[in-house]
Amino acid sequence: MLAIRNLRSYYGRMQALKGVSLHVEEGEVVSLIGANGAGKTTLLNSIVGLVSSLTGQILFFDTDIIKRNPRQIIRMGVSLVPEGRQLFAPLTVIENLILGAYQRYRKDKKSEIKSDLEKVFVLFPILKERKSQIAGTLSGGEQQMLAIGRSLMARPKLILMDEPSMGLAPLVTTQIFQIISELHKQGTTILLVEQNAEAALRISSRAYVIETGRVVLQGMSQELLHNQEVRRAYLGREYKEVWE
Amino acid sequence: MSIWNSHFECMARDELKQLQLERLQATLNRVRRSVTFYRRLFDQVGLVPEEINSLEQLARIPFTSKTTLRQSYPYEMFAVPLREVVRLQCTSGTTGEPIVVGYTRNDLAHWTEASARILSAGGVTKDDVVQICFDYSLFGGGLGFHYGAELIGASVIPGSNLDPARQVVIARDYRTTALVATPGFGLRLTAAIRKKGLGPADIYLKRGLFTGEPFSEKTRKQIEDELNIKATDNYGLSEIVWPGVAGECEEKKGLHIFEDQFIPEIIDPETEEVLPLGEKGELVLTTITKEAFPLIRYRTGDITILDASLCKCGRTLIKMKKVAGRTDELVTIKGVRFFPSQIERIFSRIEKVEPHICVVIDRRDGEDIVEVLVEISEEIFFDEMKKLQELKSRGEREVYQDLGISVEVKLVEPDFFAREAMGRRLIDKRERK
After folding, report:
1. Sign of CA dihedral B229, B233, B238, B243
2. For residue B358, what is the DSSP state?
3. Which of B25, B105, B106 sits opposite A215 (nearest CB)?
4. Is B26's CB within 8 Å of A216's CB?
5. What is the reported pTM?
């Protein structure tokens, strides 16, 4: 579905990605883990066309989308749940959701959008309860659900999620991850960037470890959970065991 | 005919290429960071790993030789700290310093998976009783097959290094259905079965997987006929994994290389140029899943041909032909270059001769002398002198006709090779003088 080859991204003269190659197959949850500043968010932003200085190939269903603008890319079926939610805070829940369907609002029947809205409400009953509430007044977890719900409104073939658990209480984090695995069961394809490496590895089938703009490890998530380097660097384990 | 991991073994070629590129790039980034040898090597040739944008560009990287591995004895080439290593094995070291090879837990999982693929390709299922006649030692073979067979769920007998006579009793009594051994041991086993007055009907064997020695078609036929089994070949090397690099399926048209774990190339051993697909040359392997002991463009020394034709079994993996010889076995005598395997092929045409030969090169009075030791079957060993003489001169004549070199043929008794030459096909005494 998605195949990236030798992706290099630049912010001015600073190179954030140094030749990253990765792929996501249909129906897969793939996670991307790495320290702060490793280039994870840049990678997601590059896929949806938010980074302008790019070289390499981003093949989405065999079409190179590297020079396309975000609107075209979203229309092709890629949806981003951005870091920090980026909701329209003064608008209501339902307005936020409808804005998620922005690019197909004129094209599709209103009834289709309405039925998609119902689907989101089935997945997140809490949003239905609060549909008229101002988005900025929701709790962190609810805001994250709204951000995911909004991305679903675009009927994406691939969802990119950037740090969905950031700033959330542990209990709420668990809830968000349950939603992600629920989406996976429904056949949604997800590329997930997470600080919470352990949770990400547990719900994904495969993973890539990024270090200063390069992929240094990749494989089945189960394998990476057993990789000592990953355990030491990202899972906060065995620190004592390794360094005494 | 079952395929153990159809996801990887039957992957579309373009998907496989993507996977190989990803794994190659991650491996290069890791060795650059963690292995001093590779950091220096890359710096020397001014290579930054991220410049490798395609599999073809792999050719820009210098080779890793066996000498390098010997010089790095014991742990210099490891890419992870020793405490992440859960197994240490080594190469035999018959031709020099041994090489220590480490495996992390994930490395062992990949190795076991590869071994399960080989066994499945050879027809082994969970219903089989697998008898493994490889030493359970430092050299990998026994343990590699053992874990693979267990993963499949077969009943595994660690026959290890018991002598053929006892292995036969075990095979008969435990109802072994699959044999794992060297071709030479396969032959000794057939002899042991005959000696006990047994035949294929008295044992339950259905299939055999052979590796670790040159395995000619003649040997294969002999083993298959005498044991009434299907015999498949497989390939590996202790520096990487043995077994586990490639395995033959029941089509017997070549050994499928597990390209999701290894990238194969064929080079001209002299000019070191990469050769086009289908040409004969030295096999070079790059490991792309190994954590503890990754090797970039390792020169295996084995001569073979890659074959990308589609296999009937459904695997999309490229095939390698049976190993046709070793680069370090290339012999030059009075300007004529040949491999012992070429002489072996000549003798495999001659009847009543066991398909086992050993070329001994010596220098007498400044002249290179080539002796070919040929094993003959038991029946004719005590035959008339005249017949033996005939056999000898026919061999010498045919070698001269085919290769243009004069050799002296010596007939040796059965079992000589198992005892003395130990699978070696070339003994060059010139170097030691």
Report:
1. negative
2. E
3. B25
4. yes
5. 0.87
Contacts of B109 in chain A (CB under 8 A): 223
Q: Which residues of B touch A20 (CB under 8 A)?
A: 25
- Asked whether the beta carbons of A65 and A238 are under 8 A apart, the reply is no
Inter-chain residue contact A23 with B19, CB threshold 8 Å = yes
**Nearest Cα residue to B356 out of B223, B160, B228:** B223
* Residue A243: pLDDT over 50: no
Among B124, B138, B51, smallest CA distance to B88 is for B138
Residues B225-253 have pLDDT tens digits of: 999 999 999 999 989 999 999 999 999 99
- Dihedrals phi, psi of A8, to nearest 5 degrees: -125, 130
Nearest CB partner across the interface for A223, out of B22, B52, B106: B106
Q: Cα separation of B136 and B146, whole Å? A: 9
A217 CB neighbours in chain B (<8 A) are 26, 30
Using the beta-carbon criterion (under 8 Å), do B25 and A21 form an inter-chain contact? yes
The ipTM assigned to this model is 0.89
Task: Please indicate whether, in this complex, the C-beta atoms of A214 and B51 are within 8 angstroms of each other.
Answer: no
Q: Identify the CA nearest to A99 among candidates A79, A129, A72.
A: A79
Region of poorest pLDDT, from A83-92, A98-107, B380-389:
B380-389
B50 neighbourhood in chain A, CB within 8 Å: 18-19, 214
Q: Do B26 and A5 touch (CB under 8 A)?
A: no
Of B29, B83, B289, nearest to A216 by CB-CB distance is: B29
List the one residue out of B144, B154, B133 whose CA is nearest residue B244.
B144
**Which structure tokens are listed for B348?**
């495999």
Mean residue pLDDT of chain B comes to 89
Q: Tokens 């495969």 map to which residue?
A: A206
Rounded Cα distance between B163 and A54, Å, is 65
Percent of chain B whose pLDDT exceeds 90: 62
Q: Quick check: A225 contacting B, CB < 8 Å?
A: no
CA-to-CA distance for B275 and B306, rounded, in angstroms?
10
Across the strands, what pairs with B265? B284
Residues paired with residue A7 on neighbouring β-strands, in sequence order: A20
Indicate the angle between helix axes A170-185 and A110-123, nearest 10 degrees: 130
Q: Which of B19, B29, B33 sits opposite A215 (nearest CB)?
A: B29
Q: How confident is the model at residue B433 (pLDDT cuts 50, 70, 90)?
A: very low
Q: What confidence score (pLDDT) does residue A244 get?
A: 39
Exposed, middle or buried: residue A110 (CB in 10 Å: 0-12, 13-18, 19+)? exposed
Running DSSP on this structure, what letter comes out for residue B377? -
Alpha-carbon distance of B407 to B385, in angstroms, equals 20
Residue B180's pLDDT is what?
96
Q: What is the DSSP letter of B274?
A: B
Q: List the one residue out of A116, A119, A94 whose CA is nearest residue A104.
A: A116
